[in-house]
Amino acid sequence: xxxxxxxxxxxxxxxxxxxxxxxxxxxxxxxxxxxxxxxxxxxxxxxxxxxxxxxxxxxxxxxxxxxxxxxxxxxxxxxxxxxxxxxxxxxxxxxxxxxxxxxxxxxxxxxxxxxxx
Length: 117
Prior knowledge:
Blueprint: E1 46-48, E2 51-53, H1 55-62, E3 78-81, E4 84-87, E5 105-108, E6 111-114
Antiparallel strand pairs: 1-2, 3-4, 5-6
GO cellular component, one term: nucleus
GO molecular function: metal ion binding; transcription corepressor activity
Organism: Todus mexicanus
């Protein structure tokens, strides 16, 4: 098994990932996302950089995810602060909803706040 490195008995079901090549195999419980360890045996998986990825983490490896709405950001026009990204329309104060682009703000536990709030 590629994940646990234990031998797979001949009578045990195995998972083959077409994109990984048929020389690699996994116990069904060991075929997991390389980022979150979600079991992938019954899900669509993605193969990137020699590892299996769940759909959520594969997409996040390509595009940022908005901290405001949790959707992927496809636009090139978005805001970033402290390793997080927001759609421009979601880069707003959590309390008063004032847009914060170009204004001072505080980031409190992933929540944006204007200086007044």
